[in-house]
Amino acid sequence: MSASPKYVIVGTAGHIDHGKSSLVQALTGTHPDRLEEEKRRGITIDLGFAFLEEADVRFGFVDVPGHEKFVSNMLAGAGGIDLVLLVVAADESIKPQTREHFEICRLLAVQRGIIALTKSDLVDADTLAVAKLDVQEYVRGSFLENAPIVEVSARTGAGLAELKETLAREASAAPPKNSAGIFRLPIDRSFSIKGFGTVVTGTLLSGSIAPGQEVELLPVGTKLRVRGVQSGGKSSDRAMAGQRTAINLAGIEHTAVKRGMVLASPGRLRGTHRIDAKLELLSAAQPLKQRTSVHFHCGTFETIAEVRVHGREVLSSGEKAFVHLRLQDSCVVLPGDRFIVRQFSPVITIGGGVILDNLARRPAAKDLGRFECLKTLETFDASKTLRAMTLRALFGLTQSEIASRTGWTDDLITDTARREQVEGHVKTVSSSPFLLVGARNFAELKSKLFTALEAFHKANPLSHGISREDLRSRAARRVRPEIFRAALEEMAKEQKLLLQGETVKRAGAEVMLLPEEQRARDQIETAFAGAGLAVPPVKEVLAQLAVETKRAEKLLQLLLKEKKLLRVSADLIFHADALEEMRQKVATYKKAKSERISVPAFKELTGISRKYAIPLLEYLDRERVTRRAGDERVIL
Ligand SMILES: Nc1nc2c(ncn2[C@@H]2O[C@H](COP(=O)(O)OP(=O)(O)O)[C@@H](O)[C@H]2O)c(=O)[nH]1
Ligand SMILES: [Mg+2]
């Protein structure tokens, strides 16, 4: 049983005419120049592709143009490469685009590479040795310092076998891409094939894709079905991360798909216009002032961006800083993606870096947390990232928000959230829909609610509590309803407050009456208690009090809430004791006289007029003390 093959993308780099395309052809048998114009002029304008299988490694070659006019095409191909094949012609040695491509690979954090000293057939041994020294000197201290240097000739075939062996060796050391991640394919080409329709190609950055699956075209958001898949130049049941991949898409014209768009698992990723990143400015570049416009390249995408340097006025040559990039067009990227910036005019590469927050907020002077957050995001530690993200998300984070900010799978999201919850850093306020908040934010919300509740009780001593909606609009207006509810419930559990239906009351909150209010309250109670069932009109009672109408009404409400008084009909209020006495009388009547009672008998029993008798009997019906039966009542 052989192990599953390893997929490795090799990108060429180097000055024009140094023999990149010829070398790819010599290695793979495929000449990567595919455009009519390329063949006619003998130069590479756009990306070319070729494949090779060697020692259980499946190589995809991305051949890039060397001409300075086509560096942006080179950049579209350089994203996603595992190995760089830096091609230097022995007869010319290092030239401007050797340097520019090398810097681009360094800024894109390409980890490994091989240096091919080509056209060895054109020079004598001394010249070859000098060229080799030049190159060694040039890459000293860089990621290519210890890279193998292979002398080759595409013309004679000298050194090709050694180059293939070296490729296989370096490939085995390259870390594999993540096939278990979400499917993500930045598109570098879209065309139409007769009988098939639209085909798009790209380097599969993560995940895998099979015919029949649904994908989302971003940033437009169109859902499409995959009709067929090719990987490594052949039809395939499933393309895996790290492979050059062609996808036949149903339901879309090839002209509607552009280089720079992304195919991804549906519903996972979002386009963005604002990015926070760490940017390194090349030492050869001019210092970068605030709000400078640059060309921005990430994956196969390119646009114009305005740069804001965080925390300082200028970014000096050769330095790194956190920056905010406002993009002219929406792009689909994730933290960890590398990007390149080129000067607006004349167009030369001036720097590059790594994306930290792909859905960044607009810069604001008051935004003090941003710097700390970016420092954490820069660690690329999943737990710390989730913690930092929730702290900045005052309204909590949903599953899809986390996904679009990380590219994580659902499993990784839930595992990380669970771990962070155990550690007490985050809190899941609702599991479906999944909603996560920072523990500190949640604690702050609770204390804000408590303060608002206390303030309410202080300002409204006659009230029994505040409505949920009122409390929310005072202290949690922009908070998601699930978070607000969870905060109240947790506070209720902690016995900080009481929830009574829609009313929220601080635990232990007593209604505090002023002396004149206490007197007025007693006066109301006495008036009703003394009247028995022959109660006075409510208005009349309230009018006799020493407090103004509004407070008098609140005191009445208070007595009703305390159930000292009871409202029997719209304008009739009775004292609880009087009603209790009436119930007793009815009960005695049943025992002593009859199970049935007529209206006149009830009037006689209680000594009241018809005006009171009817509402009271209806009250007794409601209370299930009596039941109406024709003109009479059955006593239950
Ligand atoms: N003598 C010689 N010529 C070469 C070799 N490799 C490429 N060439 C020639 O150099 C020119 C440019 O090669 P090409 O592969 O298009 O260079 P690229 O621009 O780097 O892709 C072509 O005329 C090739 O035939 C080589 O190893 N020996
Ligand atoms: Mg070429």
Detailed description of the structure:
It is built from 19 helices and 34 strands. The strands form nine sheets. The protein has a six-stranded mixed β-sheet with strand order 2-3-1-4-5-6, sandwiched between helices. Helix 7 (369-377) packs antiparallel against helix 8 and helix 8 (382-392) packs across helix 10 (410-422). The longest helix has 21 residues, at 439-459. The protein is elongated and about 130 Å long. Bound molecules: guanosine-5'-diphosphate and magnesium ion (MG). Magnesium ion binds at residues 20-21, 44, 63.
Poorly predicted residue ranges: none
Level of helix content? 25-40%
* Rg value: 39 Å
Q: What's the total count of β strands?
A: 34
Q: How confident overall, as mean pLDDT?
A: 92
Distance between the termini: 87 Å
Read across the widest sheet, the strand sequence of neighbours is 2-3-1-4-5-6
Number of H- or I-type helical stretches: 19
Shape: elongated
Question: Could you tell me which ligands this complex binds, including any ions or cofactors?
Answer: guanosine-5'-diphosphate, magnesium ion
Strand content: 25-35%
Structural category is alpha+beta
